[in-house]
């Protein structure tokens, strides 16, 4: 059963690729793609109710097993990944008529989901690294889907940053493997309790390389440059999952390394923790400022992702229960909110053909549901209570103040607050100018609301962005289960 979340989307993608009549039939795609996505979510829901289990796939080398393991962190990320992938997939059934190349897109879309499921279920660092590289190579095809020169260049930039980060992480894996061949994910870490002289510093360097390398996928400075390049050229559903889910593969990597390989006791109070916290806060502030000055909507949202995902990385780096709880809350909330914002941006592009914020003035008259959905997601991302973003940012701020990390504990909440103000500054004008363009202003927009297959996912995500902040008790129970044994 543990293989089902991988095999279901993989089989559906191969059917679209290999059986031409099915792949080219819109009717067949309208049945096969949603069925594969819903079944994947269902399989994850079923496994989430089962006890922890492991499955050996093959032996890559002596003491290098490739195997899957179901634990609480797997439950959280697999449900989030498949759920957001399903919602964005429904949106893309209509949207990709605008982009073209539907058969190719859905083949890749399902393939990437299968690989992400393998990543979420990975039971060791070696297994995780194999799927991590496969995520890069497969999602690259989503970025270059349009085949334009700009898309190819952006895709190559994404590939360069991701592969460079992965190679950096691989050096860290080599260092770790020379110290301990047991790289199985274990709550609390697997590093030996005592070290020979000089070994501790070598391990700190290894972990620093792993953290910096894996942070490339999460868009942390200085390896953030691929995000604002890739998002504007990718189709809107691809941008949504790149921002909402694929950046979280870097987040998952960092959680696995810090809490399941190294252990917080080994890293807490070291130069690695403080350097890492410094980079996350630089990224939070820098991403918000660049988003504030960016005129292109999807690129503005991409810079926003650079900032918001580093909220998560900051919480992870605090290495406290409250900080990690805030980070995991923001994983869920950001994935939901940012997917909603990107899909709303896709609806604007689909209906109006306009990509710049200034050109969307007055759009609220013609697309009020989409603009209201964008407004609700914006409120949640800023962190206005009782929306979901408030919950995670509250936990991050209080966790920082209580973490005992010196100046970073006070600087963190200040930067988070400044970033929230900047977030309001770059999101709310889309809404205010959309509804109130100014007296005598003629936008020239004559479109209507997006089709139902597009507008329903947008509204659903906007509603979830609010409700998850009000009714977050079930999620808190899963967080408690995840945190158990890590501290």
Short description:
The chain has 487 residues and is mainly alpha-helical. 75% of the residues lie in helices and 3% in strands. The protein has helices at residues 4-18, 20-24, 26-48, 72-99, 102-121, 125-143, 149-179, 199-218, 226-233, 236-262, 264-267, 271-292, 297-318, 321-352, 368-382, 388-401, 407-435, 452-470, 473-483; strands at residues 53-61, 64-70.
The chain-level structural class is mainly alpha
* Rg computed from alpha carbons, rounded to a whole number of angstroms: 22 Å
Low-confidence stretches: none
Mean pLDDT: 90
Q: What's the total helix number? A: 19
> What is the succession of H and E elements?
HHHEEHHHHHHHHHHHHHHHH
Main β-sheet, in a few words? Answer: 2 strands, antiparallel
Could you characterize what this model shows?
The protein has 487 residues and is mainly α. It has 19 helices and 2 strands. A two-stranded antiparallel ribbon has the order 1-2. The model has no long low-confidence stretch (mean pLDDT 90).
Can you lay out the helices and strands and say which pair or pack?
Layout: H1 4-18, H2 20-24, H3 26-48, E1 53-61, E2 64-70, H4 72-99, H5 102-121, H6 125-143, H7 149-179, H8 199-218, H9 226-233, H10 236-262, H11 264-267, H12 271-292, H13 297-318, H14 321-352, H15 368-382, H16 388-401, H17 407-435, H18 452-470, H19 473-483
Antiparallel strand pairs: 1-2
Helix pairs in contact: 1-3, 1-5, 3-4, 4-5, 4-10, 4-14, 4-18, 5-6, 5-10, 6-7, 6-10, 7-8, 7-9, 8-10, 9-10, 9-13, 10-13, 10-14, 12-13, 12-17, 13-14, 13-16, 13-17, 14-15, 14-16, 14-18, 14-19, 15-17, 15-18, 16-17, 16-18
């Amino acid at each position: 059963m543990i293989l089902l979340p991988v095999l279901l989307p993989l089989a559906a993608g191969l059917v679209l690729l290999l059986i031409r009549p099915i792949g080219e039939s819109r009717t067949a795609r309208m049945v096969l793609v949603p069925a594969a996505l819903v079944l994947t979510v269902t399989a994850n829901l079923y496994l989430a109710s089962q006890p922890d289990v492991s499955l050996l796939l093959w032996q890559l080398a002596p003491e290098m097993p490739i195997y899957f393991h179901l634990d609480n962190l797997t439950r959280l990320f697999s449900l989030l990944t498949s759920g957001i992938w399903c919602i964005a997939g429904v949106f893309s059934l209509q949207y990709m008529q605008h982009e073209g190349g539907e058969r190719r897109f859905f083949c890749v879309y399902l393939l990437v989901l299968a690989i992400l499921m393998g990543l979420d279920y990975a039971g060791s660092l070696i297994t995780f690294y194999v799927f991590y590289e496969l995520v890069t190579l497969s999602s690259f095809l989503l970025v270059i889907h349009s085949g334009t020169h700009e898309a190819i260049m952006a895709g190559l930039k994404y590939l360069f940053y991701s592969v460079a980060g992965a190679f950096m992480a691989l050096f860290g894996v080599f260092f770790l493997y020379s110290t301990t061949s047991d790289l199985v994910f274990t709550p609390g870490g697997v590093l030996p309790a005592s070290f020979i002289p000089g070994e501790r510093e070598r391990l700190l360097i290894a972990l620093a390389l792993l953290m910096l390398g894996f942070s490339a996928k999460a868009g942390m400075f200085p390896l953030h440059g691929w995000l604002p390049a890739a998002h504007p050229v990718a189709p809107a559903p691809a941008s949504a999952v790149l921002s909402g889910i694929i950046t979280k593969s870097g987040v998952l990597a960092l959680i696995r390394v810090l809490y399941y390989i190294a252990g917080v006791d080994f890293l807490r109070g070291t130069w690695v923790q403080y350097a890492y916290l410094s980079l996350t806060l630089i990224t939070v502030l820098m991403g918000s400022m660049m988003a504030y000055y960016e005129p292109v909507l999807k690129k503005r949202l991409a810079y926003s992702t650079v900032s918001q995902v580093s909220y998560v990385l900051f919480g992870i780096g605090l290495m406290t229960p409250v900080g990690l709880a805030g980070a995991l809350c923001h994983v869920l909330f950001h994935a939901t909110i940012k997917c909603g914002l990107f899909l709303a941006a896709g609806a604007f592009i689909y209906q109006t053909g306009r990509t710049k914020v200034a050109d969307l003035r007055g759009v609220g008259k013609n697309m009020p549901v989409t603009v209201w959905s964008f407004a609700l997601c914006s409120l949640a991302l800023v962190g206005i209570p009782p929306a979901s973003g408030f919950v995670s940012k509250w936990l991050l701020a209080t966790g920082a103040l209580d973490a005992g990390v010196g100046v970073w504990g006070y600087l963190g909440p200040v930067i988070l607050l400044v970033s929230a103000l900047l977030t309001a500054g770059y999101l709310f004008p889309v809404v205010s100018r959309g509804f109130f363009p100014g007296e005598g202003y003629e936008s020239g927009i004559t479109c209507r609301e997006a089709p139902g297959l597009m507008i329903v996912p947008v509204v659903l995500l906007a509603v979830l962005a609010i409700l998850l902040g009000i009714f977050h008790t079930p999620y808190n129970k899963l967080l408690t289960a995840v945190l158990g044994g890590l501290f």
